[in-house]
């Protein structure tokens, strides 16, 4: 997609432009290591009330606010443990013959 096509799409669909801006801003907040900016993003996102999925996502962020702010603040994660668990589950499915779709 060229820059002209991109700008034409955003001009034709202003809802998409505002949603795209929100997604980029959320990405910036997550990687900024400043969890206090999450409140600003949430209030900005709540102004868009015509997307039900976005409202649901915001409610989920509010319910788990402490975990989300800690994920922004710290570099710790459980990716290594989750990968090991997934591998163990795969081996068990193969052993018991349940590895087909």
TrEMBL record:
- Identify the InterPro entries for this entry: Transpos_ISL3, Transposase_DDE
Q: Which residues form the Transposase IS204/IS1001/IS1096/IS1165 DDE domain?
A: 3-99
Any single Pfam family the record assigns to this protein: DDE_Tnp_ISL3
Task: Quote the PANTHER family the UniProt record gives.
Answer: TRANSPOSASE FOR INSERTION SEQUENCE ELEMENT IS1557
The name of this protein is Transposase
Q: Which organism is it from?
A: Gallintestinimicrobium propionicum
